[in-house]
Specification:
Layout: E1 3-8, H1 26-37, H2 47-55, H3 59-79, H4 88-100, H5 105-121, H6 135-148, H7 175-181, H8 186-201, H9 205-210, E2 216-218, E3 224-228, E4 240-244, H10 246-259, E5 268-275, H11 296-301, E6 309-318, H12 321-337, H13 346-353, H14 359-370, H15 375-382, H16 387-398, H17 403-408
Parallel strand pairs: 1-6
Antiparallel strand pairs: 2-3, 3-4, 5-6
Helix pairs in contact: 1-3, 3-5, 4-6, 7-8, 7-12, 8-10, 8-14, 14-16, 15-16
Length: 413
């Protein structure tokens, strides 16, 4: 019989992945990248202006600008062109370079938006206009979309299935299958609570990893509310609320009791140390131990039997974006191994690889469209920036509840 022990320790006590040096602060990285792009004779930039601009940006935005800018600077160096101020003709050449490498239209548009933000940050374009807004650049983007099409690849949805799948059309991985694949140990309880809460609230991964114990508000009927202090579309922190089902609240409560978490981040890393059972080792007489044996004293004493032990170590810091994605894919593989989904061979590998941190949010959006909800209500519920964004994830399902389907379904059977 296994002995189970649960500890809460500082994350430094958990095994750590190797990292190449200390992480550079995102502000410092962005400033270093922009400095590398500026010509030596560039006029002085307002330090206060840069400081306030950085304060207004989310860290994820600054990291994305730095990464995209690195790519542009590398292309300029290889092609012997000046990064800043960018020349519109050079931007068109850069767009064609990206297209030749197979980059999608959405990536090209994002790269131009990144360069526009970087130019504004150092005061370029305030009077003369941004090079990214030049008609030549806009035409190049439009031509790329005509050639390639504007449809974006989206994350594979993790829909609920079951009661929300009356037409029987949800194939592949579902929330119900993944919940059934979660074990009953500390890691499995955490994973089940993570999946259930992330689906009910339609959380972005940044919102999911930021969820804390004091953000939960149980309701009298067993359901709950989750406070979302800040999100991608709420950078100023006005805050919003999401509804949680009674099932989710029960799963979260079981996880909190099992882990001993009373405050702070809701979902944390779980370290697992498994030790096998060992049979008793009887003491050996001195003359029976070979002369070159190391640790011969232990053989003289012998060792008592020990039972198998599993130790779970709960960290203090929240899960990372990469950690959440790894959890989804690990559980999906477990669901496939348990026969909970009908996918095999290369299709299984592709289906697991298609899952991402956005899969729960896409799944709930599609389930709501399938249930007949309109785009405006879904956008409001899931904190989308506009109904158009929600429709992008459920355009096929939304057709079943549009005006034509509602009216004609009554007369054309």
């Amino acid at each position: 019989m296994n002995e189970i022990v649960i500890h809460q320790l500082d994350d430094s006590a958990l095994p750590q992945r190797r990292r190449g040096g200390s992480a550079e602060p995102v502000d410092a990285r962005l400033l270093r990248t922009i400095a590398a792009a500026l010509p030596p004779d560039f006029p002085p930039v307002s330090a206060l202006g840069v400081e306030t601009a950085l304060e207004a940006m989310a860290d994820a935005t600054k990291a994305a600008i730095a990464a995209d800018l690195d790519c542009f600077i590398a292309w300029c160096a290889e092609d012997r062109r000046a990064p800043f101020p960018a020349d519109p003709e050079d931007l068109v050449r850069y767009l064609r370079h990206l297209e030749a490498k197979g980059r999608k239209p959405a990536t090209l548009s994002r790269r131009m938006a990144t360069l526009a933000s970087a130019h504004r940050l150092v005061g370029i374009g305030e009077k003369e206009g941004l090079p990214t807004d030049h008609p030549m650049v806009r035409n190049a983007l439009r031509a790329n979309r005509r050639r390639k099409g504007a449809v974006q690849r989206q994350a594979a949805p993790l829909r609920y299935g079951g009661a929300l799948d009356e037409r029987g059309e949800v194939k592949g991985f579902t929330i119900t299958a993944l919940l059934d694949a979660c074990g009953g140990d500390a890691q499995g309880l955490r994973d089940a609570a993570l999946l259930s809460l992330g689906y009910d609230a339609g959380l972005r991964v940044s919102e999911l990893t930021a969820a804390a114990v004091d953000h939960l508000e149980p309701q009298a009927d067993g359901s709950g509310l989750l406070a979302i202090p800040r999100s991608k579309t709420d950078q100023e922190g006005a805050g919003s609320w999401a509804w949680l089902s009674g099932e989710t609240m029960r799963r979260v409560q079981v996880w909190l009791v099992q882990s001993g978490i009373e405050d702070g981040p809701l979902f944390r890393r779980v370290g697992i140390d498994r030790r096998r059972a060992r049979a008793a080792v009887p003491p050996q007489p001195y003359h029976a131990i070979p002369g070159n044996t190391r640790h011969w004293q232990e053989r003289l004493r012998g060792a008592p039997a020990t039972q198998a032990q599993v130790t779970y170590t709960i960290g203090e810091t929240p899960l990372t974006r990469q950690g959440v994605c790894a959890i989804y894919r690990r559980i999906a593989l477990a669901a496939a191994d348990a026969g909970l989904v009908d996918i095999a061979g290369s299709k299984l590998h592709d289906a697991i690889a298609a899952l991402s941190t956005h899969s729960l949010r896409v799944g709930l959006t599609q389930d709501l469209f399938a249930a007949g909800e309109d785009g405006a209500g879904i956008a409001l519920t899931l904190r989308w920036s506009s109904p158009a964004t929600a429709l992008r994830y459920g355009r096929k399902l939304a057709v079943r509840s549009n005006s034509a389907s509602r009216v004609l379904s009554q007369v054309r059977r």
